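Curious: can you check?
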Amino acid sequence: MKKIFLIFLISIITNNNAILFAENHNKQLFVKTDNSKVLLKGEEKEQLNNILNRTTTKNVKLFEINEEIDLLQEEIIKINLPDGIKGIFHKDKIKLLNENEFVWFGSNSDDAYGSAILVIDNASITGTIRLYNKLYKIEPIKRGIHAVILNNKAGLPPEHPPEFPEGTLHKTQNNIKQKIKSSISVNKKSFSSESDPIIDILVAYTPSAANAHGDISSLIQTAISETNMSYSNSNIGLTINLIYSVQVNYTESGSFSTDLNRFKNTFGIFGLDELVTFVTVVSI
């Protein structure tokens, strides 16, 4: 009987330790907040309304960051999602951007395509989560309070603007295409046979784009990180590199061609003609 009791006691101690280990190493990224008690003011209310009014928003809930979590240290995190799903993500890697900003990459063991990309800038988190064929986005509203958004795929705009239904530039834009090809051929000369090509990116965004998101810089970094991860997952030997982002004092015309031509004709003001391979314009 003594032996049986001893084995049983060891079993209890072992199980308790396992529970404590799981609790300490599977921290919640967010904790629930009572939305009715969240006092959003002015621009914060406007930002939340922008999120709610987007055609791509299916569901949204507000959460607070768990103050006990340190993403630089955590190997496994849990994330509450708007439709009641709790995703568990294992850290794959961390990319340091500067002393205050880094990117946390994680994957979900239950979903072959489950992933989390979180851009952390001080106390602000921006990112995307893919789980069970759903897309969620994280946007900061105010310090500590974030919107976690379930994406509505049916509300996405067409992949290409009406002027370029096939996604390629029109024949009248041959000068732009030639400039891109020339830039690529020049850059390729500096690539060794042992290294993958790196495409430098300049991102220009308008005030309306900046105002529509809680942290436009982190949104841009999220897009860069997602693109590079998709290349890596597809075994494409290519990396894009953000060299510069800038807000331009421009109001969108509503026409892609007009905006593209205006941006092309003023491109030289940035003094980056020979440095930039592709230019991405972010607008709302």
The radius of gyration is 23 Å.
